[in-house]
Each structure stands twice: as C-alpha cells, then as structure tokens.
Amino acid sequence: MASLAFTNSICNVSLVKFDATSLKTSSLGGNLVRCPTKKGVFTIKASESKNGQIKSSKSIEECEADVAAGNVPDAPRVPPKPAAPAGTPVVAPLPISRRPRRNRQSPALRAAFQETSLSPANFVYPLFIHEGEEDTPIGAMPGCYRLGWRHGLIEEVAKARDVGVNSIVLFPKIPDALKNATGDEAYNENGLVPRSIRLLKDKFPDLVIYTDVALDPYSSDGHDGIVREDGVIMNDETVHQLCKQAVAQARAGADVVSPSDMMDGRVGAIREALDAEGFEHVSIMSYTAKYASSFYGPFREALDSNPRFGDKKTYQMNPANYREALVECHEDEAEGADILLVKPGLPYLDIIRLLRDNSPLPIAAYQVSGEYSMIKAGGALKMIDEEKVMLESLMCLRRAGANIILTYFALQAARSLCGERR
Fold first, then answer.
1. Tens digit of pLDDT for each residue in 133-146?
2. φ and ψ of 136, to 5 deg
3. What does the pLDDT read at residue 309?
4. Cα(22)–Cα(4) distance, rounded to whole angstroms?
5. Which of 79, 199, 286, 380 is in the most buried spot, having the most CB atoms within 10 Å?
6. Region entry Disordered: which residue ranges (predicted)?
7. 50-53-54-60 Cα dihedral, nearest 10 degrees
8. What is the pLDDT of residue 51?
C-alpha cells in the first residue's frame, strides 16, 4: 500500500491514500473523493467545507500564530474590471462629487434605502355580495365575482386572511324588487349587508369590516341620493337616510362606515347619529375627494347601479379641480372624519399627496374598477407584465401618501408579496 501526503492549493487536500488490494479508505472527517484508476482507487480527504466553501483544518490558535509570524494567507485576487463594448468612447471621469447611482447598484443597497413599503396590511379588499347561493363572475372585472353571502363570501375572506389581508369593504347587489326612490332598504337591519356583517363577525371576530354608505345600490333611480321630480339630488333629505343606514350597519357590527355619496354635511350628521346610539367607537372613512370619473364603469356593472338618467356631476367632484379637494378635506376633518379617502387612485396621485401634506389624518386611496380592469386587460393581451404593473401601481399609491388602499388586487397582490418574502 502506498501513502502520499501533499497539499493542494485549491482544495487544501491533507491526505491521499492508495490501496490497490482492499480499496480501504481513511475516514478522518471532511470530504472524501474517490478517483478510480487502472491500478486502484485514490481516496482524497479534503478539509471540511461549510456552505460550499473550503474550511481550513487549522485551529484558530494556529491561524493566529501564522499571522503573528508573518505568514498571512493570500487574499483572493481582485476581479478584473469588465471590458466596455467596442466603440465606447474614452473620456475623463466627470467632475461630480455626488453620484446617486452608487446607492442603487445592488439589491441589498436598494432594499436598505427603499423609502416606501407595501404590505398586505395596507390593503382593504372590496367584495361584491348578492342574495344568491352561487358566485357569479363579473364580465368587466376578470377574476372578480358577486359572492353568495352565505358561502362564497366566507371562503373569499378566509383566503384573504391567510395572506395577511384582514380588512374588507362590502358592496351589495340589491334585487330590483327591493329598490325604491328613497332607498329604504339601505337601513333594513335584516338586509343583505347587516346579515353579511353579522355572519362575518361570527366567523372572524377580529376582521375589520368597512361598509359603503350611499343610496345608489338601493335607489330605483341609481343615484347616491333622493331624486326630486325635476332631477335635482336632494342633499339634506338624503343625509337623513344615510344616518339611518350608518347606524344599521354599526348595529350589525361594522368597524368603519364609509359615506361615498358626496352630500354636504353628511360626515358630521353621521358622527352625531352614531354617537347618539352609543357607537362612538365606530370610525368614519369619508370619501373626501370622490371625482365624477369615467373609471367607475365596471363597478356599476357589478352592482347594476348605473343612474337611470343623467350623471353624478352635481355631487361628485370635477376631475379638473385640485384646490377644491382641500375644501372637502377641511370640512370632513371638522365634522369628525377618521380617515380621508381619494377616489379614483392612480389618476389622482396629486390629490392623495395634497391631502397627505395638509391633514394629519390617515389617507386612503381607492384603486377603482377601471384601473383594475385596464391592468387585467393589458396583462391578458401580453402588452404588460400584469404582476409587475399591479405591484408598481400599488406602490405608487403608497408613495403618494396613502396609508391604506382599497383594491380588487388585494388577494392577488398579497399572495405575490408573501411569495417574495419566502
């Protein structure tokens, strides 16, 4: 039997044994490498490795003694500078002291200096519900359904909670037979929304439930308020109905009531009505800057709530107006709103920032149905990367100043974010 000992500069081999007769090998720990030859097998024991890197077989004390004696281990060579492509001009470095790209040159640096974060906790998941047992797809909103309130709703909420989305907002599709000019079904305490709230609170006591306060799903006219015979939307009479609606929702267990009607004075009146009934703990998220936008089309299909005539421009805001949002903001603050919402979201980033800079209250943004459907359509046609555009659009809303985002992407985005973290 022959025995050879040598050191390999690459793998720090400490022992080589050759046994042509019995093919026995030494098992002294570390890595064993067998090399068959015509005369036998070389078995090589390399020094131990950790995480794929070779580890020295010397003790700490021996290594320190080597350094003290001047036997410093060689450091790896600095890799050569990558070559520029042919034809690149040779120029002197620019005389600039600040190069912002230095803070963007690696994933670790970019993550360290990221100013805005996006989490499932930032999402409020809008859910459409109806009286039926089956979930029915919404043609203009791929991936969205009118959920049966007994089963489909519970299942969808459970999925959202599994990925960290614990806030929802309910939007009901009311049977036409229950609609009338004054929207009385809105405050029926055994109506679709109160029943759904009670069911959800029974199944998920810590779920945060937002509700919509407006008459359009309940109105035979499809408007957010009571319509006079000449077509005028009646403000104060509508507010009276909204107060009863908000109290009915609070009594069922709603955590946050959300007046989306844009009637003047409704936040203060709702606050007073809630407090008078002992619901001081129920929050108000006011649709502070809700614009008369063309981005709402798919939503109105989902609820079958298109206005029977005219439009909503006498109560929703003019998309051309910027400073007017401050008027609404200051009024809602004074009347007792807890959260201020801007709707739509992405086309109105400047309004989100305006409210963020002028109010200490939390700011919400609603990424509305038209925004959702455009991203879905672009992704289906392979014009854009749906996943990346979805996350970028949500990040933009956060960057503009939104604390929470009402988005139909809540479940999909949360799953994506959870996947990234894993």
1. 999 999 899 999 99
2. -115, 130
3. 83
4. 17
5. 286
6. 71-94
7. -60
8. 55
Beta bridge partners of 167: 208
Task: Please give the Cα distance from 233 to 163 (Å, whole number).
Answer: 42
Cα–Cα distance measured from residue 363 to residue 356, given in angstroms and rounded to the nearest whole number: 7
Instruction: Give phi and psi for 6, each to the nearest 5.
Output: -155, 170
Does residue 355 contact residue 342 with C-beta atoms inside 8 Å?
A: yes
Question: What pLDDT is stored for residue 420 in this prediction?
Answer: 63
User: CB burial class (10 A; 0-12, 13-18, 19+) of residue 311?
Assistant: exposed
DSSP assigned state of 305: -
Helix (H) or strand (E) holding 107: helix 107-112
To which residue do tokens 């906790």 refer? 121
Helix, strand, coil percent values for the chain (each to nearest 5): 35, 20, 45
**Residue 421: its pLDDT value, please?**
57
Beta carbons within 8 Å of 56's beta carbon, 6+ residues apart: 12, 47, 63
Cβ neighbours for 153, distance < 8 A, ≥ 6 positions apart: 127, 129, 147, 196, 199, 200
**Is 55 designated active site?**
no
Q: How far is CA 75 from CA 72, 78, 208, 295, in A?
A: 9, 9, 57, 61
Give residue 299's pLDDT: 80
- Kindly give the parts of the chain with pLDDT less than 50: 1-33, 35-39, 41-47, 422
Cβ–Cβ under 8 Å, residues 3 and 45: no
Q: From the candidates 17, 173, 179, 290, which is the catalytic residue?
A: 290
CB 377 within 8 A of CB 371: no
Rounded to two decimals, what is the model's pTM? 0.82
How far is the C-alpha of 262 from the C-alpha of 314, rounded, in Å?
Answer: 10
Catalytic residue selected from 179, 312, 343, 376: 343
Catalytic residue list contains 313? no
